[in-house]
Design a protein that fits this description.
Lysozyme-like_dom_sf; Glyco_hydro_46_N; 5 strands; globular; signal; two-stranded antiparallel sheet; Glyco_hydro_46
Length: 262
Amino acid sequence: MRISGRVVAAVLTCVAIATATTGTAHAADLNDPRMKDIAMQIVSSAENSSTNWKAQFGYIEDIDDGRGYTAGIIGFCSGTGDMLDLVELYKQRKPGNVLEKYLPALRRVNGTDSHSGLDPNYTKDWKTAAKDSVFKAAQESERDRVYFNPAVRQAKADGVRALGQFAYYDAIVMHGDGWGNLDFSGIRKRALGKAKPPSQGGNETTWLNAFMDARVWTMKQEPAHENTSRVDTAQRVWLKAGNLDLNTPLKWKVYGQSFEIK
């Protein structure tokens, strides 16, 4: 049955009025592709000094943080196990790839900052692999499995919207999880000592302030992460502005550089 444009417009107007009246508008969610892309741009601004996260598949360097090589779109590290998991997944999806030969070395250096068995050609071969769509897809799969999905899942369980989901995601990217007191779960536990999340009857802004306070404390415990601008001049700015849905336009600073998403 064909419906006239006038009727459709009337129906949409009624829906909009009803939504505004009842407050049942769908809250912003990082699982939405556009919001996920925004989250990746913000993380990339801190990790790679650029919002162009899709240009970072081939990034690799040792940033002297005690975690060996840091590489790819989310900062997979040779010393923390996530790079090893990524290269193992790449082998599963494409046996005989250019990085497969480094798996024994990656197993040996896991937990250290050593480059033993990786130098001198690992960085070159990583950049070669990064041109392969299979490797790019593997990076995105591991980002989601290890970082993005767990962070957003916990954030939604705590009842926070897009800004809170991003705060969790950025924290787990930097600090990992399952590592001890200074990991993501440790940050959340410290915040729980100061406030309650919305799912437990707490105020969302109060909870996120407590979470960000706990995150800043944790960052200051590690010399490589003691610059807290990715919270202070980014997340905290949006929180103070009441932008809990992480609506654009967004302006922020990280490590002294200014960024914007229109």
